[in-house]
Amino acid sequence: MEIINWSLFLLPYAQAVDELKLKFSNLRRDFITAEQHSPIEHVEGRVKRVGAILNKARSKGIGYDQISENIEDIAGIRIICRFVEDIDKVVEMICARDGVDLHIKESHDYITNTKPSGYRSYHFNIAYPIVTADGPISITAEIQIRTMAMDFWATIEHSLKYKYSGNLPRGLQERLINAAEASFMLDQEMGHIREEIVAADEAIHLHNDLVDQILKNVAKLHFKTEFEEANDFNRQFMEIYSENNLERLKDFNKQLKTIARLYSVE
To answer: Where are the domains of the chain?
Structure first.
């Protein structure tokens, strides 16, 4: 039996994780740059540790030399969403990439078809092409899509299963199932007020962008105006900012832009 050099064996999986994380993180950035609600809250990735790989191989009766062909979650990406509705959007985005920069091998909807344990998530098993020093190869990876509430529950369940070697006491199993249902009820309730939450986020982004614009204009005018006049801009800004009045901030920014044009600093 050939001995596996684990560092070399796991290297392409790490490359696949890094590239997939970057792709989905860039998608999130695109939504935010376009001032749209991003269905992706954040992206996580990991390469399964050697001990976890060997444990899974043993539990499934997979031979030591068959690991790469039969364990499909050595490379793992987790996409976290705010709302259950966002999961559908991310699923659509991934399906649209099938045959473009990845190949979907299979998918599992554990949200509609919840596992008996209470586990909820949407899974894709994909083949992802990468280019290594030895040439192009295809890496099998798993993508999990879930809400923050689902992710919290799944993390706790994973820790408990590890502690009890997969054999959870019945009472604990029941409490976890109840917790999973409570978690899903929270997701549903957040979905009911989704529009309010998204509108609040947009207002926060608008406010922060406006403040950034004002401070940039003030900084430009500092180099073109008298010291006392420049300080007056700062005093006005702090006074208006303390009122938390978005309309007054907008008006002040327009005023600064007009002054900036006079000084030819735009």
So the answer is: 6-192, 196-262
- Closest to 164 in 3D by CA, of 117, 122, 210, 198: 117
- Extended beta strands in 84-133, E state: 103-109, 122-132
Q: What pLDDT was estimated at residue 182?
A: 95
**CA-to-CA separations, 201 to 32, 105, 109, 187, in angstroms, rounded:** 11, 36, 29, 18
Per annotation, catalytic residue among 142, 157, 202, 226? 142
Rounded to 5 degrees, φ, ψ at 177 are -60, -45
The C-alpha angle with vertex 38 and arms to 21 and 40, in degrees rounded to 5, equals 35
6-192: CATH topology is Beta Polymerase; domain 2 (3.30.460)
pLDDT band at 65 (very low <50, low <70, confident <90, very high): confident
pLDDT in tens, 93-129: 999 999 999 999 999 999 999 999 999 999 999 999 9
CA-CA-CA-CA torsion sign (9, 14, 16, 17): positive
Model-level pTM? 0.80
Reply yes or no on whether 142 is catalytic. yes
